[in-house]
Amino acid sequence: xxxxxxxxxxxxxxxxxxxxxxxxxxxxxxxxxxxxxxxxxxxxxxxxxxxxxxxxxxxxxxxxxxxxxxxxxxxxxxxxxxxxxxxxxxxxxxxxxxxxxxxxxxxxxxxxxxxxxxxxxxxxxxxxxxxxxxxxxxxxxxxxxxxxxxxxxxxxxxxxxxxxxxxxxxxxxxxxxxxxxxxxxxxxxxxxxxxxxxxxxxxxxxxxxxxxxxxxxxxxxxxxxxxxxxxxxxxxxxxxxxxxxxxxxxxxxxxxxxxxxxxxxxxxxxxxxxxxxxxxxxxxxxxxxxxxxxxxxxxxxxxxxxxxxxxxxxxxxxxxxxxx
Length: 324
Fold this sequence. Notes:
This protein is an alpha+beta fold. The protein folds into two domains: 12-115, Phosphorylase Kinase, domain 1 (2-Layer Sandwich); 120-302, Transferase(Phosphotransferase), domain 1 (Orthogonal Bundle), CATH 1.10.510. It is built from eleven helices and nine strands. Helices cover 35% and strands 15% of the residues.
């Protein structure tokens, strides 16, 4: 099935009063008085307002996604039933917006709606915090991240595309996840992953067949290690951030033993927790499986981090890691 272009959706949104089956919305406009949107790989997200003036995110798909309806109905049902603190309610509307398309059949297409989150992305927050050298804030972010990840592991679900742009810090310093296209739920067992996530946060050997509750292990550790390293050296962000990562990149994962690898550099830091996390990530990079056996222990230790370097050798944080 072909989907319309984002420009086709933009034209439909410009006439929103006549194009939607159930929604009554008004698109917010950009400086050119056109519907405001943010483009992604599989969809575009428009910022709109409902009849009460509440801002919504309206997701319109531009590429086919296997089992799209099945996945999103399951995700909406899961969030509505279980209320995970890091996720946001959403609605999947299968035949909602009528689009006259230049590349696909003109007709009704599905959309996903959710409340528009007011806040900053994790990446934007890290940039500001590092520019101020606020190590206490970085330690607090590390603890908050560990807490979010442990909650996902406890629930047996996976986001599938954890990265700095898919985490929003909302008022109250709470972390929320957005973009659920890659999400795994137990009832999706047997399906293949439809996306492989941002390459600077994913295991280099990840394939579509990797689709289970271990899906987030690697990216959880990438972000945890990045936050912990920045706590002691905020300047690393300016030196190694490229817009698509925090401080680690796919090249580090492909050749973790290289003298140029950031992972190798982090093994030489004074902080033992940073070294242990780097060792675990290097070990994972060298394996074909994406599961990290000790991820719960690593994250649990992350709940207690502060701005003090833990340089002493004993006691060991993670019993599965070698001391050398």
